[in-house]
Design goal:
Layout: E1 8-11, E2 17-19, H1 23-33, H2 72-90, H3 94-103, H4 121-154, H5 158-165, H6 170-176, H7 179-195, H8 202-205, H9 207-211
Helix pairs in contact: 2-3, 2-7, 4-7
């Protein structure tokens, strides 16, 4: 049997009964009194993902030169191998240029030997053709090294380009379009940076020799500056024991 009092409120002072407001209706009226419901201003924005750099040359897609990857030395070797193969297949007289990329040095082109006298007309003619071929081969090798510069530069990441542009020799490399020189500069950056990746751990690598030093306030540390690499050195106003990690601190004698 239904409850006769359900849905109505207790009687007010006049004896009239008021209907019970639903909770949602109460909330709506409360919001209206305060100026209305606030509309959500948050917008779900999706940040577009930057495409991975894969190089400018379509045939070398994915083979790049980078100095911000932990595998950068392996990447350098693989990319250079692919570049050498691409140059050997695509460039005219590309075998010499491909060999130069593989060995990081220009191949030695041997000029033809002069015919022994008295030479026949045939021998002389053959020798002249060989000379023409030698001159052409040498000229194409020089031109291919300039073309190689553009190819290698197009496979460099933005970080690698910034590193290269900071070199003192970059202006000369760029002006001469020295492709082989550019490859050597990349190799130096890759392998030098690879050996210095863990510079934050450098203090722990020198704590052993420094641990046995008896440092004093009056200690002259001028001779110590030649014993450690530049990135291990500290200012003269600091004491050498400041480089020692906390767990290796000791009391100077």
């Amino acid at each position: 049997m239904a409850n006769p009092t359900e849905g109505v409120s207790p009687s007010d002072s006049s004896g009239a009964q008021r209907p019970v407001l639903e909770s949602s209706e109460k909330a709506r009226r409360h919001r209206n009194k305060r100026g209305g419901a606030k509309k959500s201003t948050s917008v779900n924005t999706v940040v577009p993902r930057q495409p991975k750099f894969e190089g400018r040359c379509e045939e070398l897609k994915g083979h790049i030169y980078d100095c911000s990857d932990v595998r950068q030395s392996d990447i350098f070797v693989k990319t250079t191998k692919e570049v050498a193969g691409h140059v050997g297949r695509s460039y005219k007289y590309g075998a010499d240029a491909g060999l130069a990329v593989e060995n990081m040095s220009l191949p030695v082109l041997v000029p033809p030997t002069d015919p022994t006298a008295p030479a026949t007309n045939t021998a002389t003619r053959v020798w002249e053709k060989e000379v023409d071929e030698y001159v052409k081969q040498k000229s194409y090798l020089k031109q291919n090294m300039k073309t190689l510069y553009a190819l290698v530069w197009g496979q460099c990441t933005h970080v690698m380009k910034q590193k290269l542009e900071g070199l003192s020799t970059f202006e000369t490399l760029s002006a001469d379009r020295d492709g082989l020189g550019l490859l050597k500069a990349i190799k130096d950056l890759v392998y030098n940076f690879q050996s210095q990746k863990y510079l934050p751990q450098a203090p722990s690598r020198i704590c052993t020799p420094v641990f046995f030093l008896r440092t004093r306030q009056t200690h002259d540390d001028s001779g110590l500056y030649g014993e450690f690499p530049e990135h291990h050195r500290c200012d003269r106003t600091q004491r050498w024991c400041d480089w020692i990690p906390p767990r290796h601190h000791f009391i100077p004698g």
